[in-house]
Amino acid sequence: MDNDMEKSSYGTIERFIYIILLPILFTAILTGVLLTLFDYDVKNVVYNIGRKIPIINNIVPKEQIAGADTGNPASESIQLDQQVMDLTDASAEKDNKILQLEVEAKSRDKQISQLEESVEKFVLEQETNAMNSEEYRKQLKNLASMYAGMTASKSAPILENLTMPELVLVLYEMSAEDQGRILEKMNPKTAADASIQLKDVNESTRKDWEEQAKIARDERTAKDDPEATTQLTNEELAQTFSAMTVDSAAEILIQLNKTNSTKVVSLLNAMDNASRSNILAAIAEVSAEDAATLANKLGK
Questions:
Q1: Handedness of CA 123, 126, 130, 131 (dihedral sign)
Q2: Coil, strand, or helix at residue 165?
Q3: pLDDT, tens only, 279-288
Q4: How far apart are CA 42 and CA 64, in angstroms?
Q5: CB-CB neighbours of 203 under 10 Å
């Protein structure tokens, strides 16, 4: 009887295993395999279900639940796309910076080229002025030697027809004896003016006197024969500078002051008070020394 009961018990367990348990397990495994083949995240579903069951939830690894999304191919694809977009934006930004640097470099090269041309032009002008000045001094020495070789009664009337700066320069090239001999035969007023101004001439001021002589000669030429010169008068030039922007006028006058300070003083004298004040202020911002020198000459 015990054997019959044991056989009956085994038959019930076997029927349960073969008829119910195995089909359920097979179905679950097959379903899991199929879902996995179709990219369904079976593991996360199982973890979520296990987390809700008491006791079993202690077995389910919490790290896997927290990081369940990291194994999602769709999420990884989105992250890769975002990284590609970030790298593309960074590359575009670098290209824009490179383009901007190239534009700035071309602009600097152009400015350097213009400055080099300005320097070359300025050096050439300085060399030309130096050559002209040297030639002019040779002519003065020849004139002084010629007039000194003449009798004072003949040379004095001729020298009186020169402009005062030219007369002073010619006398400067003579010896003191020849100067006294010729001045003695001149008109007393002319001789007195020449004597007073002659004491101010030396090697350091000679260039200014040469500039004054050139301006006086040009003014006399324009007065005697207006059609013989096409140069603008000081008043016309002064109006031109007054019409320019203050900074531009100041920059040009600063450069001109290096070679012809007398001309700059003449132009400033020909301006109205407002224009002269504004230009002197702009010159002072660039070179206080030049502004002070010009203001001192204007006050004489």
A1: positive
A2: helix
A3: 888 898 988 8
A4: 13
A5: 7
